[in-house]
## 1
Amino acid sequence: MTRKAVVLLSGGLDSSTTAAIAKHEDGYEVTALSFRYGQRHTIELEQAQKIANHFGLKHFVVDVNISQWGGSALTDESIDVPTSGTEDGVIPPTYVPGRNTVFISIGLSLAEAIDAEALYLGINAVDYSGYPDCRPEYLEAFQNLADLATKAGLEGRGAKLKAPLVLMTKVDIVKKALELGVPIDQTWSCYQGGTEPCGVCDSCRIRDKALIEAGRPDLASRYAQEHLGQQ
């Protein structure tokens, strides 16, 4: 019997690596799920499709426009994307209110509809930007809710939330991506809109630093490559 899983695929490095783990390490038939939620960096959806094509995944894109009420630098053009780095203990303006809760809920709906036994998430609690919905305790609580809230859960066959990267460093994620053949150059992690990564937003900084430390500066943003001699 085919074992199925759903992967929330943003088109970024983490979610793409998670998709590769689900397919190549854990042996699932993977369905990818992406969201058009009003993000300024819609280019990530184009990259998500490329990643899905690369791994031969069925791919759904769902419209759920949570940008209508703003509240985040990723969905509200009046809020600047920070470029000064992260600050310990401070949730940055790139946090999108309720985003993971909405996405996981829809992911569980898809998982139940296709009888998938797992829902994979690319969240990370180590080298991350301070988001409250990227923590292991959040996932544990959501798993309890999922088991109570779905028919499949009540029958003991509900999808299990899996976050294989949650306690990995960004460098280790890069190494895992390289190991599993993730086309890193086709992933998109930048918070800004545009046609190439800005290299200065929090996400770019974390990604570029990891790529350089993992010995692949050639995959870092142009900004990082141009400033390597100054770092």
## 2
Amino acid sequence: MYGVVLDDASDFDEWRTKARALLLAGVDPRDVAWQGEGLFGGVALPSPRDIALPAVPRTFLDLAAVVLTHSDERRHAVLYRMLWRLTHGEKGLLSIATDDDVIWAHTCARQVNRDAHKMKAFVRFREVTTEDGSVYVAWFEPAHDIVRCVAPFFVRRFTGMRWSLLTPSRTAHWDGATLSFGPGASREDAPTDDALEDLWRTYYASIFNPARLKVDAMRREMPVKYWKNLPEARLIPELVRDALPRMQAMVEKQATVPRKKITPLQKAADDAPEGSLAALRRQAQDCRACDLWKPATQTVFGEGPAHARVVVIGEQPGDQEDLAGKPFVGPAGQLFDRALGEAGVPRDKLYVTNTVKHFKFEPRGKMRLHKRANAEEQAACRRWLAAEIDRIRPGALVCLGAMAAHAVFGASFKLMEQRGQWIGLPDGRKAMATMHPSYLLRLPDPAARERAYADLVRDLSLITPELV
């Protein structure tokens, strides 16, 4: 009988080295006492056989690395037996779901993984002030030796602070640059409280929802054995006891009236300039609410019938619009006109404008490349759009692109999911959003461009004759 002692019973590399030596010497698993006395029980191993070891599946090595952190003392022997079988005619061992060794190994792996999940969820660091600054210390009692595999998670999560994780089997320490491990510690080595825990308990109590309380499910996910290390645990019995009366009080309380949804355009209407549509156009030429006027050639105001029944809202002028002072006259405008024609909608019946009235660009040699207006620039310009709509009083709005859609519907609107349908607005109007023609021009795939163009025509065809 050969006795094998491991310095670190959970270390995969050390186990693999010893197991390989036994395997090369042809030692049967029944002749090995793992963690027995002496490196090999004082008995010299037979000379290694001059053979090449058969390849072992990577899945077994990964499984073994996890199982070795389990607390079952049989783990070294069972894994060596599985290794022996894999290299002695049972290559498909891991695929035999009913094999006792395979079942045992996977059961151990699940228990280790669950223990690691609980450690990530229920570790609570407490601040300790030292001469070198704050160090955060946590105490945890895992069922298995999982500190080595879980510590990198805390390094990623708390990279910017120094911490120590203490367990009975081993400890982990992060100094902000290096992760190191040490021997096990005791509960007395860790702090029991810190200055922030009262604040944390107040927060926990405030978010506790009695209507969603399921005690059995809570105890399954947060077993009582972990409570002693959780600062919020002392609140749980009282919160559970008071859950039913609190829930009844919530039911009996008068329902609150939901606040009326106000779109960005409605908010801008309060600050909209006064005057006729022609007066607005003149005033907009002198707008200095943001810096877009400085490099732009001119303000590009809306264009169309003063009492149009449909207002089409684009995003912002392009290079040619900036030079001409009119919306939708460049390549995107030409594509828009073509799509309107195929949809049977006369452009001269529409009032066409943009969310932003100045051309924002980035110089590239002699070219001026379009650049999207930021949120502040969009908000500064929205008062002009609100004033245009207020003077025209259309029955319907058509938004081209996400910028226009967000101005009308709000930031939660999802253009590609909600496009091509009329939606009622709080002010009684209806509105629809579709793709901006410039989006089609940017599509590199001709087939995708054709499909998107067909969708655009289909959406614009919803502007029926009775609307215009």
## 3
Amino acid sequence: MGYDEPIFLNSKNQITEGATSNIFVVVGDKIYTPKLSCGLLNGIVRQYIVSNYDVIESKIDLEFLNNADEIFLTNSLFGIMPVNNLEKKVFKSQKISKEIFNYYKKYIENI
């Protein structure tokens, strides 16, 4: 019912990416994204964020995702998009994703 983006898992039940996006998870003030070795496309916006922010590349499982304070998706078409909810969990904070989006928007405007 009303899903915008499915999240893919690899054969080890680790988060890889969305159908058309890369995924970032915020816990506290730390930003995480799946390692490339988990089997995902290293998108352009993902590369920008990993290069410009202190991002921890790690293996992420569903439990970790469900304990997130914030989740955001990236791709070359929409740039950076905060996730409002994951199934029944609603994310109240979008502070870090909106901050990154604002810097990314300025970066794109100056290219």
## 4
Amino acid sequence: MPDLMTHILFSIKSYPTIFEQPIEMQLRKLIVEPILSSNLKFQSTIVVDGLDQCNNKANISCLLDAFPAVLSVVSGRLRFILLSHPEHMIEVSFDIPALKSISTVINLKDEVDDATDIHMFMTDSIQQLKLNFQHCTGLESSWPQDTRALVDVMMCSKLLYNFSAVQCMAHSLKAIYSLHIMICSILANTELCALLAQQIGQHNAS
């Protein structure tokens, strides 16, 4: 958004110490005023991820306290999506009437079927590994024959219980497929196979 960038840069140049000012003033000078001064014709959305990861808890409170006044100025032109673990201090802030009246709290554990997402992610990951194997070797991977059944077994055995576990499993399968590709490459090289056979024979003889 070049137009918005121009106004933000103008604010920074006009207020060189803006990043040392209170959170509410930063919101006004770096976000609210630039949006009001710009030619944006649509509602803008700002995503703040990992709100609970901010080490300065006082800053979190200041940010949440500033939202009602800030958003009243840009009503209809700006909205925020805040992502956070449900820490007590953050939950309490959203119970304050001024913030509660302008916000909607969504508990992802209640709203999202994470089991379906995990199953879809793992199935897609395995299919991508099989396609990569075929691209590298010119052969079709015979394992797993039934990707969905394999993922079902993994989920039933609790091998895939959260996204971190899914990432670890996907990484392990990638290593297995990389080894598979290496073995197929060796077997496709007759000279290398003959050399390996000779080395194995010499080793057994000794």
